[in-house]
Amino acid sequence: xxxxxxxxxxxxxxxxxxxxxxxxxxxxxxxxxxxxxxxxxxxxxxxxxxxxxxxxxxxxxxxxxxxxxxxxxxxxxxxxxxxxxxxxxxxxxxxxxxxxxxxxxxxxx
Length: 109
What we know:
By secondary structure, the chain is α/β, with parallel strands linked by helices. The chain has a single domain (about 5-105), classed as Glutaredoxin (3-Layer(aba) Sandwich), CATH 3.40.30. It contains 4 helices and 6 strands. It has helices at about 15-20, 40, 45-50, 80-85, and strands at about 5-10, 30-35, 55-60, 75, 90-95, 100-105. The chain is globular.
């Protein structure tokens, strides 16, 4: 984990029933991004590489065409973002017991 010093790491636990009710994938990575975010735009090549592996679901908050190089779903009403308790983008959740990487922050405040 030390190599990911520019991200804030949080843990959040969900059970499989909550995931099914949310209509979210129960495995793989979930990324939440928006075009009006410079960091999100810079992560597009990384998201494209992850999407090539087939284990990525991307939700975009503000532009149904972003990111162009990655299959994604438009979170128009921010329902998914609210259900996932997204406070900052980009956010990447991994697995059923989500381990969250969110935004860029100072190493240790």
